[in-house]
Amino acid sequence: MLNFIGIGSAFNTKLGNTSAFIRKQGSMLLIDCGGTVFHRLMELKLLEGLNQLNIIITHTHPDHVGSLGEVIFFAYYVLKIVPKIYFPDLEWIRKFLECIGVEGKMVEMIADSEVTISSEIGDLGLSFIPVSHFPTLPSYGFILRDNGPRIYYSGDANELPDSVIDLLSEGNLSYIYQDTCGLDYDGNPHLSLRRLCEIIPKRLRDKVCCIHHDSSLDIDKVRAEGFQLPNVYVI
Fold first, then answer.
1. Which of 22, 30, 165, 170 is the most buried if burial means most Cβ atoms within 10 Å?
2. Nearest to 127 by CA among 177, 86, 169
3. 6-55 pLDDT, tens digit each
4. Using an 8 Å Cβ cutoff, are 1 and 21 in contact?
5. Which residues contact 199 (CB under 8 A, 6 or more apart)?
6. Rounded to an integer, what distance in angstroms lies between the CA atom of residue 220 and that of residue 6?
7. Tens digits of per-residue pLDDT, 176-208?
8. CB 140 within 8 A of CB 127
């Protein structure tokens, strides 16, 4: 299971930008790095003692990459390590990093759609899945797996791929972390709770965790419908 630093949407500043992590000994896997994330990582002392940092990026909206530069600079200059960035579109992420002043020597970029992340956490298989979110930028969910459980993480998406629902229904997926909002309108770049209820049968809802909450999401209704809420890391 993932630990979350924040679980909010771009405008839900009270909950912080949605970002999750796994840490074991000196290794950390970080998922997305929005504008509030570096501050929270420092506040929670989660970067202390790191010797390896792997960062999965789902897309380049500011609430998912807004402090990525700060994390890279801190890793390179203070921790003396070169973080690895995983994102399927190499030229897109390279251009973004160039625009914020990240030099090539400061980071290693991995653009494979399927890759194994090896660290003290273990060997984690990572498979990116293109998702529908915003028309002007590439966006991805992904499946993360080790020798046991497999999880799906949606990033920001207004859909849940049928292939992912099938994996969950067949018992080949342990858990889904799904972008879920209270707002419900045509053209919504996020998945509404109403729509999530339509596509996930009640018998599977205890395996679906709602993340990236907007201020309109009714948490009591999320629970009443049988969905889960994420673990938020505190000290």
1. 30
2. 86
3. 999 999 999 999 999 999 999 999 999 999 999 999 999 999 999 999 99
4. no
5. 160, 165
6. 19
7. 999 999 999 999 999 999 999 999 999 999 999
8. no
What order of strands is seen across the sheet that includes strand 3-6?
A: 108-110, 84-86, 52-56, 27-31, 19-24, 3-6, 231-232
List beta partners, residue 108: 84
Q: Which amino acid is at 171?
A: G
The rounded distance, in Å, linking the Cα atoms of 81 and 77 is: 8
160 closest CA partner among 190, 183, 188 = 190
C-beta of residue 34 within 8 angstroms of C-beta of residue 63: yes
Residue 1 has pLDDT above 90, yes or no: no
Instruction: Tell me how far the alpha carbon of residue 117 is from its chain's centroid.
Output: 15
Burial class (CB in 10 A: 0-12, 13-18, 19+), 109: middle
